[in-house]
Design a protein that fits this description.
The protein has helices at about 25-35, 50-60, 95-105, 125-135, 170-180, 200-210, 250-260, 280-290, 320-330, 350-360, 390-400, 425-430, and strands at about 5, 15, 40-45, 65-70, 75, 85-90, 110-115, 140, 150-155, 160-165, 185-190, 215-220, 225-230, 240-245, 265-270, 290-295, 300-305, 310-315, 335-340, 365-370, 370-375, 385, 410. It is built from twelve helices and 23 strands. Strands 2-15-17-16 form a four-stranded mixed sheet.
């Protein structure tokens, strides 16, 4: 495990960055392509820890894949929802999308399937997904501890039926079920309780299902406009070509870097108004804090302000940007309150506790009130060695502090391999594009 001391930038910069393909879209596209009839060609695929374990799991289920990593391309021979393997042990590392999506995929099979991961994965709740699967007729057991991986699925196809879905620890539980629902023996209808967690990720799943030629029906409450019910027609996805757009969560670090430097400008290529990802909304959050931002159909440009203002905001719909925003708040004027962070305790680490620990090291006043993080920025930031808790987002977000002040060291930088192996080399692009005085 390597540590890296970040060298501050000499000044503001003007750069264009195209982040790697979205992890969320890559893993969804791989599942839908594997379920489809016919061949799909996926481009701009993310090759990182979370997607590599998904590829390994699909191979163990008998999916034929032709991988061209240098070209960022994968050709997937669809199974039509009928997998060759009747028994498999699937190791999912610490990838939440992989264990959740593949659990639902295995429910379509016929045989016994075990899904497990690293020690941290065994601490991440999966009970709400198991209950969803049980409610549509799937037999799922816990070999060790109820509510947590590993899980064992004794599958005989997916029966289907109607069910209700409340506020969840992860929207991925609902996305996992939606993706396999067209292959159930009986139509699946999901009644939704109000205040859904991370709804933009569910909307992303449904839009991608539509791209693979199967369209869920979404019914909204006529008074509130909130999603009320999803009806998934029975059928098959169709093999197609799909280009994965850049990762909006990864883009957040570079948008934040520009916000921290008065006069710095960053352009994010490949993301904009047409993005499927809710995290593009992070640019609007920085605009509310004082940054100058413009968004085109496929690009975002942001310039850092002379003064950043503290913010009071609900991040329920984009929790993966919470760590990035917390770091930005260190440099803002006045207190910030980040609400809607209940899912952060069940991520790669307890992110609320980790944020409190590391922001405090840097001199901030930090308080946690249920699912709200309250940050009082320090008058002067204290140099510190930042623990990353084997969490890629801790490493990438806190590295931004080091672009402004000396003496910030990031521990275990290899943890970024989970979603962005080239992060630190891309961060150096900012250094190479510093504006001359």
């Amino acid at each position: 495990m390597s540590d890296l001391t970040i060298l501050p930038l000499a000044g503001p910069f003007k750069a264009t960055i195209r982040p790697p393909g979205s992890k969320s879209l890559t893993n969804r596209a791989l599942v839908l392509a594997a379920l489809a009839r016919g061949t799909s060609t996926l481009n701009n695929v993310l090759f990182a820890d979370d997607t590599l374990v998904m590829l390994d799991g699909l191979k163990k289920l008998g999916v034929e894949l032709r991988v061209d990593q240098p070209a960022g391309q994968i050709e997937v021979q669809g199974t039509g929802g009928e997998f060759r393997a009747s028994n498999a042990e699937l190791f999912c590392g610490n990838s939440g999308t992989t264990i959740r999506f593949l659990s639902a995929v295995c429910a379509l099979g016929h045989g016994s399937f075990t899904l497990d991961g690293i020690a941290r994965m065994r601490q991440r709740p999966i009970g709400q997904l198991v209950e969803l699967l049980r409610n549509v007729g799937v037999r799922v057991e816990y070999p060790l501890m109820d509510g947590f991986p590993p899980i064992q699925i004794d599958a005989a196809g997916l029966p289907g039926g109607n069910l209700r879905f409340g506020a969840a620890q992860s929207s991925q539980f609902l996305s996992a079920l939606l993706q396999v629902s067209p292959y159930a023996r009986h139509e699946i209808r999901v009644d939704l309780e109000p205040n859904q967690t991370s709804w933009p990720y569910v909307a992303m799943t449904m839009r991608l299902m539509d791209h693979f030629d199967l369209t869920p029906e979404l019914i909204r409450d006529p008074q509130t406009g909130e999603p009320k019910q999803i009806i998934i027609p029975r059928g098959h996805y169709r093999g197609t070509a799909y280009a994965v757009e850049p990762d909006a969560s990864s883009a957040s670090y570079f948008l934040a870097a520009a916000a921290l430097w008065p006069g710095a400008t960053i352009t994010i290529a490949g993301l904009g108004k047409n993005s499927l990802q809710g995290d593009v909304g992070f640019a609007d959050v920085l605009k509310k804090m004082g940054a100058v931002m413009s968004m085109e159909s496929d690009s975002i440009t942001l310039t850092g302000p002379e003064l950043l203002e503290g913010i009071d905001i609900d991040l329920r719909d984009m929790p993966d940007t919470a760590q990035t925003l917390a770091v930005v708040c260190l440099f803002a004027q006045g207190q910030s309150k980040l609400h809607g962070l209940h899912t952060l305790r069940h991520k790669e680490t307890d992110r609320l506790a980790a944020l409190s620990n590391e922001l405090t090291k840097l001199g901030a006043g930090v308080r946690i009130d249920q699912d709200t993080l309250i940050i009082d920025p320090p008058q002067t930031i204290t140099p510190a060695t930042i623990a990353t808790y084997d969490d890629h987002r801790m490493a990438m977000s806190f590295a931004l502090v080091g672009t402004r002040i000396p003496g910030v060291t990031i521990q275990n930088i290899e943890c970024v391999n989970k979603t962005y192996p080239n992060y630190f080399s891309d961060l150096n692009i900012l250094r190479e594009t510093t504006i001359s005085p």
